[in-house]
């Protein structure tokens, strides 16, 4: 009798275990999942306070036959995998695969013979997203109200999601943004350098529901700000590094000519000197510590600040693999 009760208990335990295992293989319900919003370069989009923007998506994590989440490599608009640095090595950026159909029991290892209504809806959305194309090119780009430190840009309106407004001060070798995802057709650039050539580039773009960006052809013009004709003496402030109060020779030069040289204590203080000569327009100011670092700035202002680094930046040589 005792043996029969033991057998019944074992059978019940086995039934309970198999029941739990069967429940574990079932899909979880679809929930609102919050994800960070990224741009076409995979960079996190932030608000005016620098906080990351997020959006809620109704999705379900796709798992394989073993119940593990399926991941995929994130690529840019050209299909190139995005990478990040982890443990001093470049590794691919991956993300979990999700589906919008909460009732589907389909996994990557099986195929569905019949499409459900939600599948058709998803297919329709995909088709709609793929129909997004690059907008027309900007054809009229001009500059007006050009001053020493500002100018106004204007261009023709095209049907698009927004505009990229970019500039370069080295003839296109490096680009920076005035505005990204700009929606107006005029922009006033401020706080510029006088007597400086600015290569301007404006292009329209369209963004699909999936976040993919389609860029139109860019239009470029060169704008030169007015020269600062006012002569002025320049107050130069050099922030010294901290190196156990050791001393070093500080050399300050303007446009390659030494204007001041003095032995200073490296205690984190600020060394200040005002030029005897008056300068006009933009000048290049360099502060160098003979046994430490160097910094150079371009300025057309009456006062500038430089922060000399503690050590010289080493030259990195690639390994010959």
Report helical residue fraction: 10-25%
Low-confidence stretches: 13-31, 101-116, 118-129, 313-321
Largest sheet: 5 strands, antiparallel
What is the H/E string? HEEEEEEEHEEEEEEEEEEEEEEE
Query: Which geometry do the CA atoms define?
Result: flat
Question: How would you describe the overall organization of this protein?
Answer:
Helices cover 12% and strands 40% of the residues. The protein has two helices and 22 strands. The strands form seven sheets. Strands 10, 11, 13, 14 and 15 form a five-stranded antiparallel β-sheet that branches. A four-stranded antiparallel β-sheet has the order 18-17-20-21, with no helix packed on it. The protein has a three-stranded antiparallel β-sheet with strand order 1-2-7, with no helix packed on it. A hairpin with a 2-residue loop joins strand 4 and strand 5 (89-92). The longest helix is centred in the N-terminal third of the chain and has 23 residues, at 2-24. It starts with a helix and ends in a 14-residue tail after the last strand.
